[in-house]
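Instructor's aside before we start: the two examples that follow are unrelated to each other. I chose them only because their records fit on one page, so don't look for a connection. First example below.
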Amino acid sequence: MLDLNFIRENRELVEKSAREKGYKNANITIKEVLEADDFRKKILSQTEALRKERNEIAAKMKGGKPDEKLIARGKALKTELAAEETKLEEYEATIKAGLASIPNIIMDDVPLGGEECSIEVKKWGENKKQGTDHLDYATSRGWLDFERGAKVAGAKFYYLKGDLALLENALLQFGLKKIREHGFTFMTVPDMVSSRVLTGTGFNPRTSDQSDEYYIENEDLAMIATAEIPLTGYHMDEILDESDLPLFYAGYSACFRKEAGAYGKYTRGLFRVHQFNKLEMYAFCLKEQSKEIHEKILQIEEEIWQELNIPYHIINIAAGDLGAPAAKKYDLEYWSPVNQKYQELTSCSNCTDFQSRSVNCRVRRKDGSVEFVHTLNGTAISMARTLVAVLENYADENGKLKVPKVLKPYLDNRDEL
């Protein structure tokens, strides 16, 4: 979330940035939050005055004969104080809920407008004019079973079998080697998180019908949509030392998504499913480090796709397509020879101090001052979509799948599957 004082001092900037992100009622929310904070301050002042009077009465009555007037006033104070404290809690809850619905500020070099206004900043590789449909191909080889997945769990669940499951494992091993070379510490993470961690990460939809998470009934738990969420909470309520930053983590997890609001986008086969595995990069750093680290994460993503030899381009995502926590985001989209277009594959975001403020993760500077850290995240390998890209680009006319060179060590050095 944003700092309340920052919002008050930069109201026009916050309102403009929220509108650019597509939060149409942001002006109303910001107005309500600031008004609630004004009332909170008044009630807090009144509450503190009542507490002071209560303490004074308690001091006067110590060791002496009970004064009936003081006793009566003490009882009245107790009732008044309870009422004011209830009001205070209500306004604090209103402020907290309002702050959670106000998105992060966009950076100056973020394009304005909707999804169509995102800007291509780089292109790599030669785009093929023909490819193999991954769903038909993998199903025909007995590698992919959506029918039995649906029987067991419902539509858009699946089984990977045989060589395709081994290929996914090879991608994981390749990705792990790559990120460890760049100094990331590998972690497995919880597949469920509390509501505090979920909202603290900033997974707040623009509208109530866009919630993408699966919630556990009668529990304060939700299934994670990405390892970014539990990694955000890893240092919750901690004060890190400046000398220890930056910290680089990589989380591997299953990801669960309802894919609410995804209708109309490419959904065939493995491209958009309710459960998949993903290797995610994450960084905690100082504010002056975050821009450089954002580029570092993007560079690692590019290295992965260049070594897999799959064409892609990089786009600077427009404000209207940014999520709440991101101040800036790059998407890496691979070239689909089947659909003859670029399709979303990985992303990396600079969330500045938006997430860390929500989960209370700070850093103590060498001069003794304490401030919120910056957090960044980026996809190393999203397994399901990466399998789509590999199958489309590496299946040959003889029905065999050529093994990308960098994956051979993890597939018994086989040339084809």
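Example two begins here.
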Amino acid sequence: MNRDEKLELAYQKIKQAKNILLIGHTGPDADAISSLGVLIELIKSLSISYYAYTERKPYGAYTYVPNEELISGVSPDDLKDYDLIIILDCGAINRTGLEDRLRRLIKARNEGALLFPPYIIEFDHHNQSESYADLEIRYPDCASTTELLYYFFDNNNLEINKNTANCILIGLLADTGHFLHTNSSSEAMLVASQMLLRGASLPKITAHTTQNKSIITLKVWGRVLENLKFNSETGLASSALKTEEINSLLTPEEREKHADLFSDIVSFLSSLSGVSVALLLREEDGHVKGSLRTNHDHMDVSILAKNWGGGGHKKAAGFTVKGKIAATENGWKIIS
């Protein structure tokens, strides 16, 4: 089945559905929230019942994204209540926040134990880690999942209103670093221009993202730079933030409000002269979260992330492991 056929089938399934569950990845970024916003806008126009969910939603961080207020951080009830489940921008089933429940559902479906099992669609631009959806629409060449959703709308001749245009553009700007990252393809730029023609507001989005800096966030930047270590032989720039440092700089509410802060910082580190790979580690709830970035075509940081059970893109990836951060003479290490 080619891409056009997949996109057409996805729309048919949406139109036929009576109750839809939308899922974005845990600890969502702007692309995940915006992707949910795109499909919420469509489903509302079709007057279909739905529930949009993302685990650990950062309340207050993405209020500028249309339909953000319609996305819940509360886990949905029985998954069998839905006849269609759409998973967006998750990269892997373990990033849905519903992995155990989804695996039990899929197992029951495969064993024929469900009379009317939910149909599962996956929209994603991450590399595949496993195949589990009934319909997998995955294209890693897309700069963002919202770019892929643009093709879904375009292929099915669906109206792109102002809200949808803003969502698509926000996702593109977020995942390309406002078109400064190397995934800023000519196709992504063309989609962005189309969104501006359809009413997306670049000044408004920019005011909420790149221009939305504060004294608080600058202090976090300063601590990361203070902790920065650079290995000139490998080109690895690494920094880390321990729990006590984060707590002294940011309240829980501020961490939610500035959800993209750490992503912005590691992207900046990857742009420094002589840096091949940038790594930012931070402690959170007994775990260590690692963010990896590179601007070099010959590097693939998703391979590094997979070594710690994570994943992502060739030039942007991440992982989460249990443990704490410890400083060494040459950099940082994670200890159990």
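DSSP finds twelve helices and 14 strands in the chain.
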